[in-house]
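Appendix C: a fully annotated inverse folding record. The material below is reproduced so that readers can follow the format used throughout the book. The structure is listed first as tokens, followed by the designed sequence.
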């Protein structure tokens, strides 16, 4: 019984030691949850133990899209990768995967924020000053416009055609069509009456 207890105690003491042997991140640039005011030149991660050359990381924007980085370089406890283009303002996530000193694969991630002030243009475009010639010379189109406006009533009067007899023709057409409809209705009624009378005679 005492041996079993001793073995269990030894296992309890050994398990934390094995856990502490795993590699873990100690430092990052940009740091975890840091807000930087300029786009970083590279991403750098440092761990508490040496890591294998196969260790790597990738950078994602807020939409989950991967941002291109240069080749990841592993040097002892540190791996880093340069950023070929500046990052836009927003939240970014670094997802890393390493092989630690104990040959265990470990993954993790952290976020940082880029909040760089927008660049303000130092030079304002010079306002174009009107040339003396353009200010002193009256515009030909402006000079001719009164004449055009004066002539517009006459032109509009000439352009509008005089009333024709189309309206009268249409009125007569409507009247004749209504008369024809009445005649057709009367004829139909008479035919129905004649047919009804003939049917009655046959029945008798």
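Designed amino acids, in order:
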């Amino acid at each position: 019984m005492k041996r079993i207890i001793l073995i269990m105690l030894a296992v309890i003491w050994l398990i934390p030691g094995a856990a502490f042997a795993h590699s873990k991140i100690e430092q990052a640039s940009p740091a975890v949850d840091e807000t930087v005011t300029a786009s970083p030149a590279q991403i750098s991660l440092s761990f508490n133990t040496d890591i294998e050359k196969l260790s790597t990381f990738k950078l994602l924007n807020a939409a989950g899209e991967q941002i291109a980085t240069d080749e990841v370089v592993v040097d002892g406890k540190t791996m880093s990768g340069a950023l070929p283009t500046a990052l836009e303002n927003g939240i970014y996530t670094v997802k890393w995967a390493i092989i630690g000193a104990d040959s265990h694969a470990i993954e993790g991630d952290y976020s940082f924020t880029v909040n760089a002030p927008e660049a303000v243009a130092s030079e304002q475009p010079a306002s174009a000053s009107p040339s003396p010639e353009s200010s002193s010379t009256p515009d030909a189109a402006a000079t001719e416009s009164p004449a055009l406006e004066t002539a517009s009533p006459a032109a509009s009067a000439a352009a509008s055609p005089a009333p024709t007899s189309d309206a009268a023709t249409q009125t007569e057409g409507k009247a004749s069509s209504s008369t024809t409809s009445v005649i057709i209705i009367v004829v139909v009624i008479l035919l129905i009456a004649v047919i009804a009378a003939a049917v009655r005679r046959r029945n008798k």
